[in-house]
Amino acid sequence: MIIVASLLFIASCATQRSQPDSQLVHYYQAETQKPYDDVLAELEIAITEHNFRITGHSRVGKVIRERGSANFPEFDTIQFCNLTHAKALLEMSPHAVIHMPCNVVTYQIDGKTLIKTHLLPIDSDNDALNDFAAKMNQTLKDIVDFAAEQ
After folding, report:
1. Considering 33, 35, 78, 82, which has the largest number of Cβ atoms within 10 A of its Cβ?
2. What is the CATH number of the domain that holds 134?
3. pTM for the complete prediction?
């Protein structure tokens, strides 16, 4: 009886946050067999060709290797932004700052390079914001696909 009561008490204290679909982070991913440095170079080309400026590049895997883990695999994150797009997005919704800057990650696993980006939600109550997000998502997919092309 004490065990059952304890379990019921513990269960009643546990909270579970519900998260509407508009707050879920959706990702787009491609993979390639191309050399890793070629993928990074082509990501930079695709980003600039779509009129974005690279605002940061973290070579996480390289730094870990330099600190003594010689066989650590590649992991990179590239952040980028277009101020015209940023202004438009923030004017539609100041809360959309959570989606900035755009970000692409690359990493190696099982002999292939994965390229991944998060997509903006397209199911808000704001139709203009949804349209903007859908166009931006296509641009992000195009950038990832360009880097993955053989």
Report:
1. 78
2. 3.30.310.70
3. 0.82
Rounded Cα distance, 105 and 3, in Å: 47
Please give the Cα distance from 63 to 72 (Å, whole number).
Answer: 10
Total domain count, the chain? 1
CA angle 22/109/142 to nearest 5° reads: 50
Q: What is the pLDDT of residues 106-142, one digit of tens each?
A: 999 998 999 999 999 999 999 999 999 999 999 999 9
Domain contains 90: yes
Please enumerate, as own/partner, the contacts of 121-124 that have beta carbons within 8 Å and a separation of 24 or more: 121/21, 121/22, 121/23, 121/24, 121/26, 123/21, 123/22, 124/22, 124/93
Tell me the C-alpha distance between 75 and 113, whole Å: 10
Residue 4 belongs to some domain of the structure: no
Distance separating alpha carbons of residues 50 and 53, to the nearest angstrom: 9
